Amino acid sequence: MAAPPPLERAENILGVPLHRTEITLESGEPYDEGASYALSQHFYGKDGELRNAIRNMTRFLAAFARQRQDSQKDAAVLYSLLGNLHYIAGNFNESANCAMRAASLNRSDITYWVELAFSLRALGEFDVFEGILFNFEGIVRLWQQSTAPDLTKEALLSLIKEAKS
Amino acid sequence: MENHAILVKDYVPRSFGKEYWNVKGPPQYPMFAAVALGLKPVMDDWVDVHDYERLADACAAYGLVMAPDIVFAPVEGSKEGIIGGRNITTTYSRGEKFTGQNTEGQVHILIARDKQAASDARKWAWYSLVINGRSTNKPFVDHLRYGKCLGYPPCCVNFFRTYNNWHLFSNPFETLKNTAFENGNAIGSHYCNNFLMDKGYSYIHHLPCSYRCKASTALAQELEKKLDTLEPAFIQTANRLLRKPLLVFGEQHFAIFDGELQKTAGGASISYRACQYFRNPSRPEENIAFFDEIQAGDALVMNDSHILIKDGTTTIRKAERKKEWFLIDFD
Ligand SMILES: [Zn+2]
Fold it and tell me: A15 lies in a domain?
């Protein structure tokens, strides 16, 4: 029997029903905070449960990334969910890293850019936050065309600079 | 009845917080006092881009600092075609970076006793502004963190956590449902009456979890006690107005009466000498059509299904009642 889809497995691990669809620039849809909302409602203020959830998701994601290198879009969703958990826990460097990893694995979905922007805002990087929001489409398109393998903080700053010019 | 007297007039401070009031007027005067008096850690506010420096000076006069966030710039036209338009109210703003050189709009600011506290609060202070045709909501957990930063009681932050969706819930009605009724007393305590906050009369600036929330009452009483020694006329005026009965339609949308509420078996009624209507500026689509009749009448009866407006013994209007509308009095 085939293993259930990764999102379903994440739902089982976290005990929270989750819904994720890819949001692209072309879809004309805004960032969908449904998953972030559900996770916040379930975990915020419950530190022990949240720590366990982060540990279990991290393990699941590591195994998934090893075994399913063909499935980058699914891995991106899992990184984003782990990032959401870190955000709720107040680990904003980790949530920013997860969002950058997700944006590297799936360059179509704008969700990860919003998650990255808010992680940086939570770190007090207001200029970078505004840099992303005020140049949103330009940055996403530049990143889609970029040949760089991974989105890093340095790459992000160059994208903002390039999109502004 | 033909009484068009204005019930709720602006209070002009004689001494305490006058500098703030001169720039900003009444809306958040008590919250400014609460921050200046060390009772509230941070407040957020908006100031016209041209008045930014004046407000910074007013804050400095009380040992307070401001952290600028972003400019809420005016928008013309409907929200049709905006990505994420469903998440914003009918009247909305466009986000513009604060440069100090902006020519229009209101700067969103955080006011606190030190720069760090103001900057920390700013992290969670994002509003769904429209930037390049796109509106983006902040993560939900930021609302909870923000409430905590602004000094809201945990019970009220938790209440918000449950009833935050204004597409589904009328917040005041949920607060009413969560209010334990005490026989022989008014429904709410005037300490938890936040309806007049935009007119500058409210000891709290959050949605209370109940109109008798103990934590909100405690915060309000602290502010009342301290401000009474500095600006007693404000406290007298606020305490008088905050005890007047209201007909509530929704958030920031209500009528206030100079009159008395009577509770009856099938509903409640108010006989009144004067009344005043407050609309929610962000949701003009919710305005009621029969306020002129309320103003022309002298009594109002509310039952499960209708509102009857009377002038003497004559019923001048029978309006269908929405279930989330209610009458409330305060002691
Ligand atoms: Zn409360």
Answer: no
Per-residue pLDDT of chain B (331 residues; tens, 9 = 90+): 545 568 999 999 999 999 999 999 999 999 999 999 999 999 999 999 999 999 999 999 999 999 999 999 998 878 888 998 887 877 789 999 999 999 999 999 999 999 999 999 999 999 999 999 999 999 999 999 999 999 999 999 999 999 887 777 889 999 999 999 887 889 999 999 999 999 999 999 999 999 999 999 999 999 999 999 999 999 999 999 999 999 999 989 999 999 999 988 778 999 999 999 999 888 888 888 899 999 999 999 999 999 999 999 999 999 999 999 999 999 9
Within a domain: A73 = yes
Asked if B156 and B148 touch (Cβ cutoff 8 Å), the reply is no
Tokens representing residue B147 in the block: 């409430």
Q: What's the predicted TM-score (pTM) here?
A: 0.93
User: What is the full DSSP assignment across B14-57?
Assistant: SSTTHHHHHHH-STTHHHHHHHHTTSSSEEEEEEEGGGHHHHHH
Q: How far is the CA of B331 from the centre of ligand 1 (A)?
A: 18
Domains held by chain A: number: 1
Cα separation, B12 vs B227, whole angstroms: 14
Residues of B in contact with A88 (CB under 8 A): 141
Q: Strand, helix or coil at B171? A: helix
CATH number at A122 reads 1.25.40
> Is A106 inside a domain boundary?
yes
**Residue A105 located in a structural domain:** yes
A-B interface: how many C-beta pairs under 8 angstroms? Answer: 62
Structural domain containing residue A101:
32-164
ipTM associated with this complex = 0.96
